[in-house]
């Protein structure tokens, strides 16, 4: 049996995040009319699911941004010039991933603002509900593409580049990040 790698953990988080995002989008799409008695409960559950998803993805993004990418960049650059092409590829991919993380965070914040407006029934709720559904669809697509690219292009490269001790160092950093996220959540 092969030893678990930190990239395996990130893949599982991708799967969990994509599944939760799909459910959120479906929930936004299958909404009751604003005047329906179940509207308040529906939109409250959308807000709760969104909050949970933001926490999950926030921790996941930190694991990649703080625990994986900096260490991999450093480890890859230490092997230069033999891996200049790989280092260049990884630099481009990680920069692209960081931009995707930023866009996903932004879209999730926009959805949270819309959900809060809908909970308070502020403004034109039907238009806001349609906008929330559209943002959820866009965010779902972006997250699926982003996770797919990392799972099939970025992570396999990392798995080939890093030795066992380097993978262990990345895993330790990711565990520390997860622990700090758990402490922050318990303080809320």
Task: Write structural notes for this entry.
The structure is a single chain. The chain has 5 helices and no strands. The chain has 188 residues and is mainly alpha-helical. It has one domain (6-187): nmb1532 protein domain like (Four Helix Bundle (Hemerythrin (Met), subunit A), Up-down Bundle). Helix 1 runs antiparallel to helix 4 (125-161) and helix 2 runs antiparallel to helix 5. The longest helix is centred in the first third of the chain and has 40 residues, at 39-78. It starts with 5 loop residues before the first helix and ends with a helix.
Produce the secondary structure layout.
Blueprint: H1 6-29, H2 39-78, H3 84-119, H4 125-161, H5 164-187
Quick recap:
This protein has 188 residues and is mainly α.
